[in-house]
Amino acid sequence: MILLRRLLGDVLRRQRQRQGRTLREVSSSARVSLGYLSEVERGQKEASSELLSAICDALDVRMSELMREVSDELALAELAASAAAVPSEPVTAPVRPMLNSVSVTGVPPERVTIKAPAEAVDVVAA
C-alpha cells in the first residue's frame, strides 16, 4: 500500500536537506515542535494543510511545488506497484514536463507573453 504521508515526508526531508538545514531550524521557523516535524518527515503523522503551509513557508518552497514533487513520487510508486503485480508487461513512465520558475524583472507586465506548448512553458520578454 502506498502511503501519501510517507511520500510527503520524504519530499519534505529532501527539500530541507537540499537547503542544508536542520530539523531544529525548520521547526523553529515553522513554529512546530521538532518531534512533530520529525514524525511528519518519517511519514508517521499526517500533516494538516495549515501545518504544510507553515513548513513550506519555513522552507521557502511553494506548496504547489511540494505537491507536484509528491505527485511525481506517487506516480512512480504506482508504476512500480503495477509492474510488481504484472511483471510480464512492460511499464513505461508517463512523461510530464517540469515547470521551471522564471523571474522577469524590469519588464512591464503588458510586455510579457507566456506561451504554454505541450512540452514546456516559455516566458518571452518582448
Structural features, described:
With 126 residues, the protein is mainly alpha-helical. The chain contains 5 helices and 2 strands, in the order αααααββ. It has helices spanning 4-18, 23-30, 34-41, 49-59, 63-85, and strands at 112-115, 122-125. Strands 1-2 form a two-stranded antiparallel ribbon. A hairpin with a 6-residue loop joins strand 1 and strand 2 (122-125). Helix 1 crosses helix 5 and helix 2 (23-30) packs across helix 4 (49-59). The protein is globular, with a radius of gyration of 18 Å. The termini are far apart. The model is unreliable at 116-126 (pLDDT under 50).
Any key phrases for this structure?
5 helices, single chain, globular, 126 residues, mainly alpha
Short structural description:
The chain is mostly helical and 126 residues long.
Q: Which consecutive residue ranges, at least 5 long each, have pLDDT under 50?
A: 116-126
Q: Structural class, judged by helices and strands?
A: mainly alpha
- Principal-axis shape equals globular
Termini separation comes to 50 Å
Spatial order of the strands in the main sheet? 1-2
What portion of residues belong to β-strands?
5-15%
Q: Please outline the major beta sheet.
A: 2 strands, antiparallel
- The helical percent reads 40-55%
Number of strands: 2
What integer value in Å does the Rg equal?
Answer: 18 Å
Mean pLDDT: 81
Number of helices: 5
Pattern of helices and strands: HHHHHEE
